[in-house]
Specification:
Largest sheet: 8 strands, mixed
Number of helices: 5
Strand order of the largest sheet: 1-2-3-4-5-6-8-7
Distance between the termini: 26 Å
């Protein structure tokens, strides 16, 4: 999933001072019914081949639009890593096995903030489940809930975790709902019509 690119004007990324990086590597593993799950920050030289293979899966490429040679994925990953801690690309590792790709990012400092009433420290999630064998069996919603809880535990100033899946990606929207996110509104973004999904700190024990 490409970052929201709004160009110039009201939707452009707001100017900001350097942002302290998420310390994702220090977050503890989440205990889930499927086993221990951990977010491991990406290292391009170690992870490019794996992430690039996932990006070329047609089911993934339809929404991330990063299919092609490894240099396409490398450019995307390096842009994430160069963005002063505003976004952290990660592998999702379940029981020691890398099986998903995640981006944890400051939504309030992203171009996305020009499209909804953002609050300070809103944190966004992008994800893909890498292997076909891991899709369609409930892992997505289970891991979304776990990662949202990791974000809230690791970022005390964050009151909301947000996401903007493509409305056409019905399984993804359903997974967010099962994970305790609520539908907030529809968004007209430059590259897609999206569902803004929100998981509130104040409601996480109720949903």
């Amino acid at each position: 999933m490409r970052s929201v690119d709004t160009g110039t004007g009201a939707g452009a990324r707001p100017a900001r001072a350097p942002v302290p990086a998420f310390r994702v590597g220090d977050w503890e593993a989440a205990r889930t019914p499927a086993g221990a799950f951990r977010l491991v920050p990406v290292r391009v030289e170690r992870d490019l081949s794996l992430v690039g293979r996932w990006m070329n899966d047609p089911a993934v490429a339809a929404f991330w639009e990063l299919a092609g040679p490894e240099r396409v994925t490398a450019r995307h990953l390096r842009a994430q890593l160069a963005d002063d801690g505003h976004s952290v690309p990660c592998l999702g590792v379940l029981e020691g096995r890398p099986m998903s790709y995640w981006e944890i990012y400051r939504a309030d400092l992203d171009p996305l903030a020009g499209h909804y009433p953002a609050r300070p420290y809103d944190t966004g999630i992008h994800l893909l489940i890498g292997g076909a064998a891991d899709r369609g069996r409930g892992l997505g919603s289970l891991l979304l809930r776990a990662v949202a809880d990791l974000v809230l535990a690791g970022s005390p100033a964050c009151a909301r975790v947000v996401a903007e899946p493509d409305l056409r990606n019905v399984p993804s929207v359903a997974a967010f709902l099962r994970a305790g996110f609520r539908f907030f509104t529809e968004l007209d973004l430059p590259a897609k019509r999206a569902a803004l999904m929100v998981r509130d700190r104040s409601l996480r024990d109720l949903l």
